[in-house]
Amino acid sequence: MKRIVVVGAGAAGIIAAWKAARAGVNVTLLEKKERIGFKILISGGGKCNITHDGDIPKLLGCFRRNEADFLRPSFHAFTNADIRHLIESKGVELTVREDGRVFPLSSSAKGVTAALESLLADAGVELRTLAAVSEIHRSEGEGWMMSVSPPKSVDPSGNSSLRIHSDAVILCTGGLSYPGTGSTGDGWKWLAEMGHAIVKPRAALAPIFLDVVPPNGWAGIALRNSVLKARQSSKEIAKSRGDMLFTHRGVSGPAVLDISRVVAEMRQFGPIELCADLAPDSGYEKLKELTMGWIRQHPKRSLSYYVVNYAPARVAEDILGKSDIAGKYGAQVTREQRNRLIEVIKGYRIGSVQHVPMEKGEVTAGGVDLGEVNPRTMESRLIPGLYLCGEILDIAGPVGGYNLQAAFSTGYVAGLSAAIDD
Ligand SMILES: Cc1cc2nc3c(=O)[nH]c(=O)nc-3n(C[C@H](O)[C@H](O)[C@H](O)COP(=O)(O)OP(=O)(O)OC[C@H]3O[C@@H](n4cnc5c(N)ncnc54)[C@H](O)[C@@H]3O)c2cc1C
What integer pLDDT is reported at residue 50 of this predicted model? Predict the structure, then answer.
């Protein structure tokens, strides 16, 4: 019987192994951690946003154009409805939130990984955990050979290494973010040695660290529903509307995660400034009208009562300081000061980007060049018998269940193709 080895038991590897075994081949799934699906367990804050509701074109529309083109065949082969049915078939109830994100009804990822583990067992997959692959070779006529040993943390001597042979290999070792989950970029090292082009890995869906950290006591303060903008040489390079949060090192939250990939990619070309429009529903003229109206109504009140409509108290204080009107009443404010206040509210300076930390990204952008993988089979275009799926590929979707869906769908196609290809 054809023998397939799947390296990495994340979302992609689990579905690839399950599908290949269901297609009737002998499958071994090697995972270096002590259990499968570490990243699934921490996804969605432990609640596991497994996919997104909606039709396939809508889902694909959330990825960059080249990524969507690549994902189209696999998203149709194994849809968001398919992964839902599969998980539900194991008794895990799912729910669709108002924004279209799909979660387990229990709000716990544990049921999802338990369901996936049970599917692997039903399909007859041989699962080996604490099995870290250190080398992969292919020799003509003999197929693939992998050196496998317990991770160094379990066996520092490295003496208990063994060799496993197979006819085909599915590599799904993930990206580089959250390395504690087991994703440490191992696959890219082997693939680069085999001649594959690896697009430089960068953080995506990550917090942003600032050159000057937020003032003491600001960590945890949120700016709600503002428009966060990133500028480089006074050109806007990214923007996102949503909540953001000050942290000890910089900023985080949905709007920050959303622009982090572009910021990480563009940082090499020069300094990047972040600012937030705290009144995105009012243009300058409208805000001027509102501000003048408030001042007319409350000439004897401190403007801090007005600015808290746009920002939490501590940020409001900073806004007043930057507008030169700290402690002033409405009636004491000059036209210049009022105009300055409006400018500060519309373009509140958050700071200069220092760094977008890869290890804290929910996804790694970059990875195996999509041009070198057949999107209909997930087989390498350079090396026959080698299949690639999941985050190891140069794909990074937005928040919302898209990344797990990409891993599930590409894993499914890789598993099926590896099983049926001659
Ligand atoms: C904090 C966080 C929250 C997230 N939340 C969501 C969410 O809610 N929804 C969503 O869609 N996406 C979310 N994501 C992203 C999503 O989890 C990943 O995109 C997806 O899990 C990637 O799956 P994968 O199988 O390609 O890679 P991984 O899950 O990274 O799996 C790779 C596996 O390979 C194993 N491995 C690596 N090297 C070796 C080796 N040498 N030998 C053997 N095994 C090896 C690793 O241990 C790991 O188990 C989140 C990610 C993070 C970090």
Answer: 97
Measured from the Cβ of residue 285, the count of other Cβ atoms closer than 10 Å reads: 9
Closest atom of ligand 1 relative to the 33 alpha carbon: 47
Query: Helices 11-22 and 402-420 meet at what angle, rounded to 10?
Result: 30
* Same-domain status, 116 and 211: no
CB 341 within 8 A of CB 303: yes
Cα torsion 361, 62, 109, 121 to 10°: value is: -110
Instruction: Find where tokens 């000059």 sit.
Output: 334
Q: Which residues, at least 6 apart from 301, have a Cβ–Cβ distance to it below 8 Å?
A: 329, 330
**pLDDT tens digits, 163-214:** 999 999 999 999 999 999 999 999 999 999 999 999 999 999 999 999 999 9
What would the two tokens of residue 115 be? Answer: 């369901």
**Which pTM value belongs to this model?**
0.95
294 C-alpha vs ligand 1 centroid, how far in Å? Answer: 51
Residues in Cβ contact with 177 at an 8 Å cutoff, skipping those fewer than 6 apart: 183, 203, 206, 358, 359, 360, 361, 362, 363, 364
Structurally, the chain folds into a number of domains equal to: 2
Q: Tokens standing for 224?
A: 């709600």
Which helix (H) or strand (E) covers residue 376, if one does?
none
- pLDDT 10s digits, 290-319: 999 999 999 999 999 999 999 999 999 999
What radius of gyration, in Å, describes the C-alpha atoms of the chain? 25
Give the N- to C-terminal CA distance of the chain in Å, as an integer: 12
Q: Could you tell me if the CB of 136 is within 6 A of ligand 1?
A: no
Q: What is the CATH number of the domain that holds 137?
A: 3.50.50.60
- Same domain flag for 368 and 318: no
Domain boundary (305, 339, 356) is at 356
Which residue minimizes the CA distance to atom 41 of ligand 1? 133
Q: List the domain range (segments joined by +) for residue 344.
A: 207-356
Task: Give helix 80-88 / helix 110-123 axis angle, nearest 10°.
Answer: 80
Token pair of 137 as six digits? 């070779």
Whose structure tokens read 């259990």? Answer: 35
In the listed set 356, 373, 398, which residue is the last one of a domain according to the structure?
Answer: 356
